[in-house]
Amino acid sequence: MPSGSVRLINAVFYAHHGVMQEEHRIGGRYEVDVRMDVDFEEAAQHDDLSKTVDYESIYKLVQRIVTENRFYLIEKLAYLIACEVLNLYSIVQFVEVTVRKPNPPVGGTCDRAEAVYSKKAEPS
């Protein structure tokens, strides 16, 4: 069975997530990667966007989830994004979402914290 991946890499948003009250008040930078496994052979053969996943619509979905909510955990963001992608795009066979928080408040030097969540589409 043919397959491929469509990816959004390092979509960046300013939002208000975190366990600390200060993170909810001030906000911070969040980075998101989304990998979607799809069979896009027909899309490629016919140069037809309707036969694959539109990464612009995925970006808007991610943007809405990240910026219009306030959660304690980046794990919640990764989980919700993955579930929404699978719910809205039946062409997606597997999704992996990475949410990064640069310079997390861990009491020392740390480049980033990240949560990675992956989920396979349910058979129809």
What is the CATH-assigned architecture? 2-Layer Sandwich
Give the integer mean of the pLDDT values.
94
Please mark out the parts with pLDDT under 50 across 5 or more consecutive residues, or reply none. Answer: none
Radius of gyration: 16 Å
Characterize the overall form: elongated
Strand order of the largest sheet: 1-2-3-4
Strand content: 25-35%
How many strand elements? 4
Oligomer: single chain
What is the CATH H-level superfamily?
A: GTP cyclohydrolase I, C-terminal domain/NADPH-dependent 7-cyano-7-deazaguanine reductase, N-terminal domain
Structural class: alpha+beta
Question: What is the makeup of the main sheet?
Answer: 4 strands, antiparallel
The CATH topology corresponds to: GTP Cyclohydrolase I, domain 2
How many separate structural domains? 1
Tell me the span between the first and last alpha carbons. Answer: 17 Å
Describe this structure in words.
By secondary structure, the chain is of the alpha+beta class. It has one domain (4-105): GTP Cyclohydrolase I, domain 2. It contains four helices and four strands. It has a four-stranded antiparallel beta sheet with strand order 1-2-3-4. The protein is elongated. The mean pLDDT is 94.
Can you summarize this structure?
Helix content is 32%, strand content 33%. It is α+β, with helices and mostly antiparallel strands and 124 residues long. Strands 1-2-3-4 form a 4-stranded antiparallel sheet.
Q: Which features would summarize this protein structure in a list?
A:
124 residues; alpha+beta; GTP Cyclohydrolase I, domain 2; four-stranded antiparallel beta sheet; 32% helix
